[in-house]
From TrEMBL:
The keyword Transmembrane helix applies. Signal peptide: none annotated. The chain crosses the membrane at residues 20-44, 56-80, 92-116, 128-149. The lineage of its organism: Bacteria, Bacillati, Bacillota, Clostridia, Lachnospirales. The keyword Zinc-finger does not apply. Keywords: Membrane, Transmembrane, Transmembrane helix. This is Permease.
Length: 158
């Protein structure tokens, strides 16, 4: 019987460093983005401090999480897949959804650096940015939920 998914094992190993690197920094970025997003939506101030913090956080989070994605893909996903080391569906779902966080974070990075959304007005960019924040929050929470499961719960017993 496996006690935990690789997701939880990653966060529990080498305390507190891996918890900080793989959970705290991305979640703090997401929460900062969500809060600044609300401030911008309520005030419609597209040049204030909240917008500057949001832009800097979006750029940082995109680069940071791309690094996490590359590191974990090379050092966890490929070895687990080639060795058959996955601990069942919950394990794959947790890690897969966690790593899929690279998509919205990179979307924010590309938006903030002007590589996408060039033809959108400020409101259109704000809407797209809010969508990216929402997507990250959803995939991160799915990863957390499945990551906290005992991976044996979703294994079909014959």
């Amino acid at each position: 019987m496996n006690a935990m998914t690789h997701y939880m094992e990653l966060l529990a190993t080498n305390q507190p460093w891996q918890l900080l690197i793989f959970m705290a920094v991305p979640v703090i970025c997401a929460e900062t983005l969500a809060i600044t997003e609300m401030i911008i939506l309520f005030t419609r101030n597209m040049t204030g401090a909240a917008k500057k913090v949001s832009k800097a956080t979006g750029i940082f989070a995109g680069i940071y999480f791309l690094g996490i994605f590359i590191y974990l893909f090379i050092n966890a996903v490929i070895p687990l897949t080639t060795s058959g080391g996955w601990r069942g569906p919950a394990d794959v779902i947790a890690v897969g959804f966690y790593l899929s966080g690279v998509i919205p974070f990179m979307g924010m990075f590309l938006l903030e650096t002007g590589l996408i959304g060039k033809k959108r007005d400020e409101t259109g960019k704000l809407k797209l940015h809010a969508v990216f924040v929402g997507i990250f929050l959803v995939v991160a929470h799915i990863a957390m939920i499945f990551g906290m499961l005992n991976p044996d719960l979703l294994i079909m017993k014959m």
